[in-house]
């Protein structure tokens, strides 16, 4: 292959490649947006349920932090 | 006395070539970067160590049985090999014989003759080196990068991308780094500085995708002879993202742009997350079948993660399985760091082009974000554009950090995760295009 | 322009066949059943996804290098293939050439010619598809179902069976479903409705064993061409056990029988549990060597579990190892869901026969329990007979649930676990008999 | 193979197969029963030792339940 | 009736040979030792079970497709085999034909003829046995022992050795057991009692290294036909270390020597622990490339452990990966316990020589420690010398226990860990020397 | 190979082998000692930092012990 041929091939691949990436991801944007709308219509997005679960007990959170640390240390010690 | 001499002639010290010394030092350097500087240690520790192993003189850990025989067998065995390989050995210089045989074995020898020659090599007591076996099973088959991609899929949360699908454009733009680098490699060849084929240029370009497994997968198909240098460049520059990107990000954006606040992401439902990998899979099936192995495994991993009914499989894909495969993938990549292949001027070219790829990809992502910002009503901080190169999650963290410098109350991390994972998809698509045309 | 056309001609959309569309929809349906209806998701998620991957047009993920070349290579390559395969290509219709070559490649081509043709295909740039590789390593070798059976052994508690060994008879009786289904398949063939060979009929019958790995193992040996349909039927009907069994159970038992209370199981010592897998192994060795791979691995897993000195191996067999193998087994089964094989009237036959198999097995188990009840002094609730089809632990739960309806204080779960695990042994024995005569 | 031949083959396989399954599992019942007896004679079944271990402290059980939940949440959070 | 006879002629009971009965009993005995006596259960449970599986008559689990065909195929198939193997079958005694074919297949048949004969065997419906496949993938490739060695490296703490490098001499001395045993095997052959080749003698000697994976690796290269007996001896005697060593230790030391207190070990820095595996690797590369696979993987595992940046890989190497490989390694070793190979007088010789190897290694380690004590100012308790045989960590515990008997305040455990891990390095070096000369 | 030849070969291998093992491990002793010195000079050994970390809270240790046991039981129960 001559050098100019190689350059041309490279340019062509760049053009096609970059173009294809954009076309494909544009299709994906469209498909994703449509999908989200369909899903939202079929199954309306639930209210964020965090408030119900989180404040159950603040103490719990603290206990959990202590526990997490303890479990972590336990694991590290027993790993080797 | 005879035996003592055998021991000495067979020792590493007696056979040590300068190239091997250099490569062992490079292996140690990679380990230093991985361990002390924390450069992508999960890959660079095995790669660096594998590189050292591959360059142990006389051990032939990275060689096939046939290459091993060609390199060290007695003249009689070489003559047998020449006979079945249908090569004539001129003169009496055994080293020249080895060169001739090596050339013949690696230049289109028909497979049935390779088999016959391998039979002779094995009959003479040579066997496939350990790293060669790892490479065959893990990389030459294409399996290891795909399994890692499955694990990456199982670790990826597409929530931010689904909340703001426009960020896919940023992931697309950043792939310009890939194709610009391909042109760079082609240009260097046209200028006569380097000598890369189009296949090699494409494999080098993929470094700009900032995705280790994608780089390894593509170069195992298009340019296995460059795989070592490409993988090392890909992982090294991924680790350097926090150094390479910020100056470019600051140069291309104004203080005011960097301070743009983005509206909070909408919550994404579980069902959307389950359906998204299937939508992506169907698009791949319809428009780019050549990306099906890479994106198929990625989507499979992500579906296992999100569907909520196969937690034990998802866990294993994210832990035991990806770890096992990473160990062998790393060692296998290391097997491509043999002096004769790695110590070429091309490697310098790859290293140089690699950093250019990252820089251009970063710039393209930011410019695309500025463009989106100009045409859209919803404000978008251009700093998240740089995350489109992927290098998950480092590039997103860089976006966040540079954003915090301009506006200490503006947390861009979650916003940058959108283009970040879009970049993974983008480079896999680019990889598919490359394989379609050149594979 | 030329390249754009290449892209279009190589796209999935251009090459999409109707069969592939149907198969992709079936794959999505399997995923829906697995994820939304929780039909054996650990297997049906990978199988469904693998089925989609296998039907991506042009990607050839489920094809060998040779088949891939036959399907898409240029005419020149086809002529080379024809030469080494010693086939003559008449006319100039390239599609007809492909059909001729495909037929030759799959109809007893001598192995050395397969090797030579594969060499040409690989030389022309084609390689084994990803799913084809998974299938070769995981299923064609027989390894994956055996390793899963080992894991199942390591998760099985033979305590209830040891406390009441008579329940083995229930596990034996339920295997009548297997042989009745075999006769059904043979009968349909004799009537000219379907066209199954005896080997195929046997592989279909094993669906009645309600044991996924056993079904896959047997059909990989006796009828690999039906493996996809058989595996899908086996797992789908296992998931349907709570729907299929209760009506049959109610029809065959009186209210009074269903209310029978069973005496509490005696405690079983650790030593009995250790020795049991060895007793079973010795019996297999003496009387049915053809069941040795399946039951050997099963006993090995169980011994690791019970012996108490290799907990780390038992843990790994139950977790990391079985999960890894499940992922690849599922994808491999999916590779057999290609349109040309799956979309045949035989698949409908298999689906129909499969549900019959479950029904007959259920009925046979219950009738045997009634018989035991009639001849024995110790009362036995006939509802536990249906658990003999295995489908561990679903069938035992169904026995428990139907039992509770009749007598809210009567917990049959542990009693039903005896026939439940006996059914696993029973179908492995039946599989051994099939392989002995037909393998 | 003619259809009647196939039917005969099928019937033969059904007969042999079902028979063999029964014979084999009958042997297994016998062997298992014998084994259990031998084991019981060699190593008399130990008294159920649950009473000794279980009531150690009821509180423990409660703590354990709390801990289990905490550990479970800890794990779920840290898994991904 | 015909079919019933087939069943009977194909049953294990009809075909059971005395050798197989003996081997099944030996397998059960190994399981008893592993489970009840806790003799290295992680290996001996799979080995024992694999040994039973390998001796199930007619199942051919440990045979290749070709051997399986030779052993049980119809005369017509045997004649086909003879044709392609270029062997003439005299007379009409089919059993004699089998013997002829078996001899030809295992005595240097050219690989292309092996391939052709295997094609015929597979065409006639025979396939590679399950254990044969495990053996090929796990041991014949050399991979399994190496991966286990990597895991052992990841579990090894070189701290005590780095704190007191002199203990490496103890690890060196204890390898005298290896070479003395080699001489023992050679001597028995010279005396005409046994018939070992030099390769076999070397493989037997390595038992004295008290390192399972090293033994398996070396004998898979030098004497695969003895692998079963060697592996069983190695693991069995490792478990017997607490019985074999103490009398020798007491005989060679005085009460006063045994009471010697050793000074506390200095703390070893993290960096030393990171650099040590690299130092060892470089020495191996320079002086003994043939030990590179074994010690390379060992150092790699240790580097992953110590470097602190790849914890997830190190964890996997120590758990899921080593467990998976152990299961298949054990079953594969079991496949070498077939009656025809194991039930030879040579096995008795191996068992006898093995215990001698351990005893001599123990003695050499202790004498070397006494020597060091004599020439050095820093006191060294000779009891830690016996730990140089490796058998980690059992031998170190024995040193500690015997030391406590003499001086209840003297804890030798950490001091003995130095020679203990030095012994692992020492035997890998000895293995490298053997492979260099004989491989 | 004659028996005396075999004996000689064995003796030679024993001599070379044992010698090589000693030479190699001697080199390793030297290299390790040098390495330790270099490391010690580059990065002086840190003071044992245990005292700082350990006595943080004794209670913690006790809690940890309880937790470890609990976690252990939790795991055992849920493993199978
Ligand atoms: Na990317
Ligand atoms: Na069953
Ligand atoms: Na040792």
Q: What Rg of chain A, in angstroms, do the CA atoms define?
A: 27 Å
* SS field, number of helical segments of chain A: 3
Could you list the spans of chain A in which at least 5 consecutive residues all have pLDDT below 50? 48-64
Average pLDDT value of chain A?
Answer: 70
How far is it from the N-terminal to the C-terminal residue of chain B, by CA?
55 Å
Largest sheet of chain B: none
Q: Roughly what fraction of the amino acids of chain A lie in strands?
A: under 5%
How many β-strand stretches of chain A? 0
* Count of strand segments of chain B: 0
Shape of chain A: rod-shaped
Small-molecule binders? sodium ion
Topology of chain B as a string of helices (H) and strands (E): HHHHHHHHHHHHHHHHHHHHHHHHH
Number of domains of chain B: 2
How much β-strand is present in the residues of chain B? under 5%
Q: Give the CA-CA distance, first to last residue of chain A.
A: 58 Å
Topology:
The complex is a heterohexamer, with three copies of chain A (80 residues) and three copies of chain B (439 residues).
Chain A: H1 3-42, H2 50-53, H3 58-79
Chain B: H1 2-9, H2 12-15, H3 18-35, H4 41-54, H5 65-72, H6 75-85, H7 94-105, H8 111-123, H9 130-140, H10 143-155, H11 159-163, H12 167-173, H13 176-190, H14 198-205, H15 212-222, H16 227-252, H17 255-258, H18 270-287, H19 292-307, H20 311-318, H21 320-334, H22 339-342, H23 345-375, H24 394-406, H25 413-438
The structure holds sodium ion (3 copies).
Summary of the model, kept short:
The complex is a heterohexamer, with three copies of chain A (80 residues) and three copies of chain B (439 residues). Chain A is mainly α and 80 residues long. Chain A is 82% helix and 0% strand.
Descriptive report:
The complex is a heterohexamer, with three copies of chain A (80 residues) and three copies of chain B (439 residues). Chain A has 80 residues and is mainly α. Chain A has three helices and no strands. Chain A has a domain of 43 residues. The radius of gyration of chain A is 27 Å and the shape is rod-shaped. Chain B folds into two domains: 55 residues, no CATH class; 300 residues, no CATH class. The radius of gyration of chain B is 24 Å and the shape is elongated. The termini of chain B are far apart. Chains A and C meet through helix 1 of A and helix 1 of C. Bound molecules: sodium ion (3 copies). One sodium ion (NA) binds next to helix 25 of chain B.
